[in-house]
Amino acid sequence: MPRLSWLTTLIRGLFHDAGAAVGVIFAVCLIMLVLAAGAAVDYTRAAQLRSTLQGVVDDAALSGASAYVSSSTATTAVTVGKNYMKAGIKLLPPNLGITYKVTSNTVTSGGNVTAYTVTITASGQVATTLMGLITSALTVSVNATATNPIVMASIDLGTWSSSACDTNTIYWYVVPTDNSLPSDSDLHPIFTNATSKSTAKLLNDTSTLVSTLDAKNGAAGTSFQVPASQKIGFVLQNVTGGNCSYGKNHYGGASGSSHVFYSQLSPPSQDTYPQQTQNCSLQVLAVSGSQPTPSGGSCSSTTSKNAAPSCSTLSGQKMAYFWNDMGGTSDDKGFNDAEYDFSCTGGSSGSTAVVLTQ
User: Fold this and answer.
1) Burial of 251 by CB count in 10 Å (0-12 exposed, 13-18 middle, 19+ buried)?
2) Helix 21-66 vs helix 5-16: angle between axes, to the nearest 10 degrees?
3) Could you tell me the pTM of the whole model?
4) How many CB atoms sit inside 10 A of residue 358's CB?
5) 112-127 vs 167-174, strand pairing mode
6) DSSP readout, 312-342?
7) pLDDT tens digit string along 142-168?
8) Where are the domains of the chain?
């Protein structure tokens, strides 16, 4: 072993000197102590790299899985994971290089997808100091798998209330990955306060919407499956004077005109009333025990935090949604024109969040 040739020569020279027995013992002990100290330093540096790299891999897997919300977003999920790794590697302790691999997969049961996963494996090396007598580098390896489970989202209409003279219809929709507004065909009707089926058909000619009229005042709500990280938005479609005519509304909308408010916008009325810069449309409050009461009579400079949430961000918390349709010749800002609750329950894993499973 060339790295130890000098040590062998030293020990042999000491042994040839009969009077150097003590020196031999001391030299050997000293060398072993130096090697042990060097090994401790090198292994500490390797452990530091491993710990930091594990944190980067964990976060990269979680970020990738959060972006994996459908079969069509598998490539996006891998790209997000890779981009996170590239950024995280720059912050690692000194090393001789990091290699990694990002893969996406699905968990299925009975032919149905129950979760989307992203797995990342990575390894790297740190140069040794005094241990260089034995090896030039120490290798560390880590891995992580993050799971985005399919969960159950529920809209509870048990608290439904509407004091509006306007016709108001609520829809839910999946917020597009580019945060654009959904197409009309992607809106799922939940409920309407329309007083006749003919009015409902004017709003959206779907049997689902019309059927809500048959169950009006007794509708329990609706549930649907969705990936935990998928943002869900809501639409209030408003028809001025749809239930009782009163002329133009406070913002100039003519009788019979339709206005659409999107919860993902700030304010939600931005698309319909671009001149209205404050949020006069939606309040979202956490349900804790009894049903909360919205504050009325005024607008807000901001849009509620959970106006378009994912089940993951709700963390099991039920939220109450209160809409104001901006109707009436003088809008009362009562936030009582459409009310309902939204909550999520865990999927097969029992979790409503994107989590590390490995």
Assistant:
1) middle
2) 160
3) 0.81
4) 11
5) unpaired
6) HHHTT--EEEEE----SSS----S-SEEEEE
7) 999 999 999 999 998 776 666 678 888
8) 2-150, 157-345
